[in-house]
Automatic annotation (TrEMBL), chains A, B:
NCBIfam families cross-referenced by the UniProt entry: pcaI_scoA_fam
Species annotation: Rhodoplanes roseus
Family annotation (SMART domains): CoA_trans
Database matches in Pfam families: CoA_trans
GO MF entry, a single one: CoA-transferase activity
Family designation: Belongs to the 3-oxoacid CoA-transferase subunit A family.
Gene3D superfamilies for this protein: Glutaconate Coenzyme A-transferase (3.40.1080.10)
PANTHER family: ACETATE COA-TRANSFERASE SUBUNIT ALPHA (PTHR13707:SF60), KETOACID-COENZYME A TRANSFERASE (PTHR13707)
Protein name: Acetyl-CoA--acetoacetyl-CoA transferase subunit alpha
UniProtKB/TrEMBL annotation, chains C, D:
Entries under PANTHER family matching the protein: KETOACID-COENZYME A TRANSFERASE (PTHR13707), SUCCINYL-COA:3-KETOACID COENZYME A TRANSFERASE SUBUNIT B-RELATED (PTHR13707:SF57)
Keyword Transferase (UniProt): yes
Protein name: Succinyl-CoA--3-ketoacid-CoA transferase
Organism: Rhodoplanes roseus
Keywords (A to Z) from UniProt: Transferase
NCBIfam families xrefs: pcaJ_scoB_fam
Amino acid sequence: MSKVTAIEAAVAKIPDGATLMIGGFMGVGSPHRLIDELVRQGRKDLTIIANDTARPGVDIGKLIRAGAVKRLVASHIGLNPETQKQMIDGAIDVELVPQGTLAERIRAGGAGLGGVLTATGVGTTVAEGKQTIDVKGKTFLVEEPLRADFALISAWRADYYGNLSYELTARNFNPVMALAADTVIAEAGEIVPVGLIPPDQVETVSVVVDHLVARSN
Amino acid sequence: MSKVTAIEAAVAKIPDGATLMIGGFMGVGSPHRLIDELVRQGRKDLTIIANDTARPGVDIGKLIRAGAVKRLVASHIGLNPETQKQMIDGAIDVELVPQGTLAERIRAGGAGLGGVLTATGVGTTVAEGKQTIDVKGKTFLVEEPLRADFALISAWRADYYGNLSYELTARNFNPVMALAADTVIAEAGEIVPVGLIPPDQVETVSVVVDHLVARSN
Amino acid sequence: MDEKTIIAKRVAQELRNGNLVNLGIGLPTLVTKYLPVGIQVFFQSENGVIGMQPLPEPGVAADALTDAGGTPTSIIPGAGAFDSVTSFCLIRGGHLDVTVLGGLQVDEAGQLANWMVPGKMVPGMGGAMDLVSGAKRVIVAMTHTAKGAPKILKKCNLPLTSVRRVDLVVTELAVIQPTEEGLVLLEVADGVTVEQVVAATEARLIVPNTVPTMQLAA
Amino acid sequence: MDEKTIIAKRVAQELRNGNLVNLGIGLPTLVTKYLPVGIQVFFQSENGVIGMQPLPEPGVAADALTDAGGTPTSIIPGAGAFDSVTSFCLIRGGHLDVTVLGGLQVDEAGQLANWMVPGKMVPGMGGAMDLVSGAKRVIVAMTHTAKGAPKILKKCNLPLTSVRRVDLVVTELAVIQPTEEGLVLLEVADGVTVEQVVAATEARLIVPNTVPTMQLAA
């Protein structure tokens, strides 16, 4: 059961208006080819859940520049003035989330949890409009889980079943996003025969991956 | 900064009445030597947080047989009739926790979360006396975080700084417990020079480990 | 064919290619023996592995690779290992396609009790509550009666495993599907009549006009 | 010695052997240059590594190993890599000994504002809120004033990063410790008087009878 799919076909499954989680951190560990193909196919009105939007015209920044993004949930947009401009102009609806809360909200979506109880953001603008709960005399924000229609993931190595391994800081949000979307499309630096990734080095298990695309053409 | 400590000295730090998390699953991946040394030093009135109590007189079952345990938080005691007998006799106060909830409660303790919002246990005896919360129209139990004074961990490999790697199903509760205790004592199958465990295979980072003991004498 | 074989063979038919499946200890583990040809299923063991399979031969057991009962096991190529947190993230997060568990009681609401008998058996729920609450599909594999007494009741009197309605109940006599309207009798075993199933069941059964016979491989 | 060097050198004195430390981008990263001899510190980068160190030479950068700004970095022997969830588990779970961050404003309650200027600068908080809420020790490293205007105020008027009271504020003029009673002036820089610090500070400072001078290596 190989999961390898032609990139055009894999990305064609994503409709306009879809909610996408996209792995990566300032463009490191981002699914470069999948992003390029989304832009090439002219997808629009996307909701993107990602740590950041990289730099102008780079990685997720390409989707911003292409005007493909309607809504963004991210922790940091400081290094991409185009995102900030579109936000101020009202072209993109941006929800800024503390990075640790973002990671935990995605995790909650993937782990079947009802939400995240966190001290981060209590008493700040981040808390506005949110439930709080007291546990053992301390107040926590209730942050809701995040899920997506698709997760676009970047891995170092995959096997044909879709088991994935990651490398150093290119790991970041990829493993957790692979658990929090209805359909997972992974891009891998290399695809190796089944059995070549030692079980202890499988960080995303094959059963959650739907489609696999090689990084090089 | 080697963390290697003589086993007698490491275990001597644990006072009577302490709360201990102990890794392992039916004795697989348990810190065998640390348990033996606890029994040898005659520690008593312990609170143990662990998945199970293995079998009679085996691994954590040794602590049960020695009468060292006052309170137990576990998901399963079915294969150790001695634990069940001490529970029914009132010698041990046992809190039974669904296994996934146990893992998440320990994780919450290590991750600074205020609790776990889970559907597991809603409407069952597990829910008695607990807060519930509604998120997006669905009801979840609020399960409180677990922390311990000490975590006794078993690893496959360690380096002298205390970076740890695990093997297959001997992993289980060890990595998460290593994050949820004030003091972490790890027992490793082998201790290798610093730099020999590739960074991507470090599953418990050295900074959370306080003492390191070799498995063989 | 004995009771357990009937149940295991029938449950095996419910598994689909590529499914992630968790089998409870005891009867459910027999299901592995009767997988239809050409179906590849990934078995999860909740102690931290996907791709578990029986030991190929004696003498190749390793301390660090066991099933949830602590018994040595082996793995297929393409297996993955992980910690308990990730294991239950898969179970509770909707990633597990099918869980097959034993049962003490199932009732008209399709609710399952399978983890304790107050005052008698207090093993702890292990992963059962998580599995029933979190799996996409919950199949209960159990004998229809215990010492002659029905196990499919109007209302469970043992503590529930979950309030979630299970998806299918397979016994040596019948296949029953819990629905919002009640328990629907889907199939009867070869040589068993609808009347015999009804007589062995305390709960009210919804009986369609035609109830097919379970089809099992020899 | 320029302002930034004074601040970085003084902050470096706060780090202890074996500490896990996170440095914010900009001024705080200068701290790495002035670690006292014999002190081994583990630097965390929140994008997923402990044991970060500067690139030893040009030409050895790798795409998959960068700091939180996306700039190639390198690691010491004994480093560990992990995903964003684990990274913030370390930050929020009380495992991070020290975080050093820049600041826009600090007030008498010891609260920090450092992540946005409404209508002007909306970069997003990144990990700042998690770091200030979760680290064992929070050190703010910033210039004492901005274009002549005090940054240490009675009350922050920019959005707070956290309601948590920070542990130390280090500027080119002074070292200030927020306490329950208010801001205590711990040290003044070489050549700076208590009166100059008070004049450059809007907040009320608690001034002990003797205020020692910052001791910095040459």
